[in-house]
Amino acid sequence: MEIMAKVAFCVYTLIILGGAIVAVTSSSLVRALVGLITTLVGVAGMYLLLASPFMAFMQLLIYVGAVSVLIFFAVMLTRAELGGDEAGKVPMKTYVYGLAATMTPAAILGWLVMTRPVQSIAIPTEVAIKDLGHGLLESYFLPFELISVILMVAMSGAVLLTWEKRGKK
Amino acid sequence: MSALTLYQLVALILLCAGLFGLTQRRSLVGMLISVELMLNGAGLSMVAAAQLTEFSAVLGQLGTLFIMGLAAAEATLVLAIIVVVARRFKSARTSDITTLKE
Question: Is pLDDT above 90 for A145?
Answer without folding.
Answer: yes
